[in-house]
Amino acid sequence: MAPATATAKASSVGRIVWLLFISIMVPAVNVGVHGLIFWFFRDSPLHPIANALLAVAWGAAGVYSIFWSLNWVVEQYPDVWKRRILPFIYVGPAVLLLGWLLVIPTVRTLYLSFFDASSQTFVGLANYAAVFTDRLLATALRNNLLWVFFGTTLCVCLGLLIAILADRSSFERLAKTIVFMPMAISYVAAGVIWKFVYYYTPEERQIGLLNAIVKAFGGEPQAWLTMVQPWNNLFLIVILVWMQTGFAMVFFSAAIKNVPDDILEAARVDGAGELRIFFRIIIPYISGTILSVTTTIIVFTLKIFDVVMVMTGGQYGTEVVATQFYRQLFMYQNAGYGSTLAIVLLIAVTPVIWFNLRQFRREGGF
User: What is the phi/psi pair of residue 43, to 5°?
Assistant: First the structure.
C-alpha cells in the first residue's frame, strides 16, 4: 500500500508541476512570439500594402492561436478548475485590451490634470478652479445643455412619433429606411452636407439650399451659423436630430411591436381612444426602452464634437466642452488644462452611463 501511495503522491506532484509549467510557458511564448511579430511589422521593410495584408492575416491567425493555446492549457486542468478558469480565458484578453486602451489613459489623464501646461509642475486643483471660472467654458457648458435638452427631446419625440405612424402605414419599410439612412453617415460627412445646406454668400446668387428656398419665397438670405445665440446652436442641433432620430425610431418600433395585441384590443373594446391607448398602455409598456434610448442620446450630446468642429470650428458662440478640450490640448499645447476638461467631460457622462447600465441590468440585458 505504501509504494502505491508514494507513487500516487509523486504522480500528483508531477501533475501539479506540469500544470504550473504550461500555465507559465504558454502565455510567455504567446507574448514573446507575437511581440516579435509586432516589432517586425512595425519596422518592416516590406511595401506598405504587403505589410498591411500580412498584418491583417497575422491578426486573425494570432487571435486564433492565442485562444487555442490558452484553451488547451485549461483543458489540462481538472473539471472543477476548468469550469472556473475557462470564462476568464475568453473574457480576459478583452478586459486586458480595454484596460490598456481605456483605464490606463484615463488614469494618466487624471494625473496630468494636476499639472501645468508642460506637465512638469504640480499645481493641485488650480486647473479645476480655472475651468469652472472660465467664461469660455461657461459658454461651452451652456451649449452642451442646449444639445442635451433640445437634441435629446427632439430625437426621442420624433423617433417615437415616426415609429408609431410608420407601424400603421402600408409603406412602413420605405419610411423607416429613409429615416434611418442618415445613421449610415459619419458626423463629419453630415457636417459637410449640412454646411452646404446652411451656406451663405453676400452675393445675389445663393448656393446654400436653405437660403435658396428662403429667397425663392421672397425672404432675405441669412448667415445661419453666425446668427445670435442660441439660434446658431439650434441649427447645429438639427443635424443631430436628422442623424439620431432613425436610431431612436428603430428601438421604439421594435418595442412597440412587442406590446401584446390582446391588451390593445381589450382597451379598444372598452372604448379607449387611440391617444388614451398610446399614453396609458404603449408608453408605460415601452418606458424601459424610452429611458435607454434617452440616456444613450444624452451621452452622444455630451460628447458632441465632430459636427461643431466641421460646421463652425467652435466659433460664433457654438463652443462645446469637447471642442474646448481639443483646442487646449492640441492647439494651445496646454496638457494640464486640456486633461482637466477631459475629466470634467468624463464626470458628466459617467452618471448617465451608470444609469443606462443599471437599466439594462433590470431588463435582463446582462
Answer: -110, 25
